[in-house]
Amino acid sequence: MSSRLALAAVIAAFAAGQADGARAPQARTIRLTSITVSLVTHDKKPKGASKGDTIVYRDTLVNATPQFGRKTGAVVGSDSGIMTFTSAHTAVFRGVAKLPGGTLTLAGPVTGTSGGLVIPVTGGTGAYARMHGTLTVGPGSKRAPNTYRLMRGSLTAPVA
Fold it and tell me: Which of 34, 44, 69, 122 is the most exposed place for a label (fewest CB within 10 A)?
């Protein structure tokens, strides 16, 4: 290969990498229902929600709407995680959701809103690589709506 051809190949590869990083973020919403498989609470003294208490979750995830090529009600994955209270009214969450094509990493402070508990989505694998956003867990004890609002792509504009 001539040096001119080799240089052209390197420039083309670099330009392709830059174009990939410059893509606009892609939004995706996933609506599921979580069904509790197990829930274990570790309540340290004092009784009731307090710093150091934990709740360990394991759920089955089913479609709340047709998606992933499957109908409403179809089992499409699972999730698991641990919520650790940092005070009587604050907590952090660490967990993972397994969905068709990959996983989503859940990690960070839990925020209470009128719509439910909001947990940060900090990354993923496979089809969810470079995803970030939020998971909102709605009301329910054995079954709860789960809404993932996800973005893929750069959070900031690329440097010119």
Answer: 69
The reply to whether 84 falls in a domain is yes
* Longest alpha-carbon distance in the chain: 75
**In Å, how far are 8, 13, 44, 61, 107 from 41, measured between CA atoms?**
60, 52, 10, 21, 19
Compute the average pLDDT of residues 110-133.
95
Three-state SS at 108:
strand
Domain enclosing residue 143, as ranges: 25-152
What pTM does this model have? 0.79
Q: Which amino acid is at 85?
A: F
Q: Is 126 helix (H, G, I), strand (E, B) or coil?
A: helix
- Give the pLDDT band of residue 141 (cuts 50, 70, 90): confident
Minimal CA–CA distance to 51: which of 89, 25, 81? 89
Our count of domains for the chain comes to: 1
State the amino acid at position 93 in one-letter form. F
Q: Over the range 73-108, which residues count as b (16 or more CB within 10 Å of their CB) and which as e?
A: eeebbbbbbebbbeeeeebebebebbbeeebbbbee
